[in-house]
Write the structure tokens for this entry.
Amino acid sequence: MSSNLEKMDSYLRQYFSFQKLLPILTVDDQEVCEDLANVLCESGLNTFEVTLRTQVSLEVISKMSSLGNFVVGAGTLISPSDVSSAIKAGAKFGVSPGITPELLDECEKRSFPLIPGVSTASEIMNAYLRGFKILKLFPADVLGGAKMLKALAGPFPECEFFPTGGINQSNANEYLTLTNVIGVAGSWMAPRELIKERDWSKIRKIVKMSDWKI
Ligand code: 3PG
């Protein structure tokens, strides 16, 4: 593994050694940044993924990063230029729905910690052989959920996964108890509509940590 990849891997482990739930935030209005970050932080969540899916995504990453107490990652990274924009905005890590050699090259070149998305054994092999051991299994629920993760533990004992896609309050614990799951991610903790409505009390209720096996 190159020294850049080792550094990237250790940063990710540092970010996720205490936090096993990664909220995926799609934010339409940058004015909500501070309130949203504080509500999540009340429940011990200070590491987030902000998707690059709205007009203001990069501003949201910058704003949340500048608040000081938060580790903000950029999600939906698809091209090398997304990686550049995310780094420029202040993102500390990235998440992608899938892998391309160009995306992995760019992240490695820039020592930007990436959680690459995989959905097949072959994609896991491609990512793993490049030195990426923390992977996003997407879309986890559709692929077979906990059953698939148990099956992957055999051939890929060194890989750890962030199952994402179709995870919710009722099935998150099923994933969190698996030995090859480093954490679970999803939009269910702070759904886009609730963020739009600034319904902080509903979001607060969802992320109440006491319910999670972490
Ligand atoms: C992603 O951005 O990784 C997925 O859209 C998250 O899936 P979810 O909305 O089912 O949590």
